[in-house]
Amino acid sequence: xxxxxxxxxxxxxxxxxxxxxxxxxxxxxxxxxxxxxxxxxxxxxxxxxxxxxxxxxxxxxxxxxxxxxxxxxxxxxxxxxxxxxxxxxxxxxxxxxxxxxxxxxxxxxxxxxxxxxxxxxxxxxxxxxxxxxxxxxxxxxxxxxxxxxxxxxxxxxxxxxxxxxxxxxxxxxxxxxxxxxxxxxxxxxxxxxxxxxxxxxxxxxxxxxxxxxxxxxxxxxxxxxxxxxxxxxxxxxxxxxxxxxxxxxxxxxxxxxxxxxxxxxxxxxxxxxxxxxxxxxxxxxxxxxxxxxxxxxxxxxxxxxxxxxxxxxxxxxxxxxxxxxxxxxxxxxxxxxxxxxxxxxxxxxxxxxx
Length: 354
Hints:
Layout: E1 2-6, H1 11-22, E2 26-33, H2 37-40, H3 48-62, E3 66-70, H4 72-88, H5 95-112, E4 118-120, E5 125-130, E6 133-138, H6 155-159, E7 161-162, H7 170-179, H8 201-209, E8 214-218, E9 224-228, E10 250-255, E11 260-264, E12 276-284, E13 294-298, E14 306-312, E15 318-322, E16 335-340, E17 343-353
Parallel strand pairs: 1-2, 1-4, 2-3, 4-7, 8-11
Antiparallel strand pairs: 5-6, 6-17, 8-9, 10-11, 12-15, 12-17, 13-14, 13-16, 14-15, 16-17
Helix pairs in contact: 1-3, 1-7, 4-5
């Protein structure tokens, strides 16, 4: 096939390129430049120049054409503006999920036209196509599995997706990179949010939303025990960055109308039960989940899944109920992603405690 590979300069997408070449595909590699220089340069730096150098060297090794595609405007319009508005209302967005939906498999596909049969990435996930439908399955590496980040793709987007390394564990991939003698075989994985580079997320929030001093209140007593710079700097379940002694302290609730943040040292007591929430704006790959059926669900990226049931509500919403244990933090604005065994069915945006 004619395949457009999104290459980041990291080892994952580099091994993906090698796999595509070995499989006999006609490959062109693209680096998406999303670093917002005008907006972000004064806040810090981004290693995108290093990323490009690594990506180019890998492409040269395999004789693959390499091109940089500017995506700053699309990224601002489709991702960053939404992130800012979501933060302002006290919710916790996930820009990496939106990037896959709106940029990598959205604006990028629009930019390159339909001359390619598929878009390939270095995600740890598996797309399987059967009976005219495309299914998303987990990677065997449950720590690295990235189906959570792909849960918003449409059926059309998933149908043209290739994940060449989805069958590998990270250890196996590193071994393959060494065998291939890739120039970035030992390069460390990138961390953090994709468009921020080395900028701290709190600095990004401070620049775009500002500060507004408010009260830190002990949940159990209602006593004011400190100050904070704005409720938008905090998310439910947060432990780091509260800045008080005598902890650990956890964020357990936010009162956005009065700019109050409630914290507690007793996070797992019954009065803070966190087992239910409402999800809406749902995306399901094949069919809508059957109400009251037992599934597993991720409330954030990582290996941890909860057992849960779903019950349908009007307007396409669902009530999600955890059936095994409380979660550390059910945060509005984040995504609940639903699984049946190792298949990702899709998911929705967490709106509120049920």
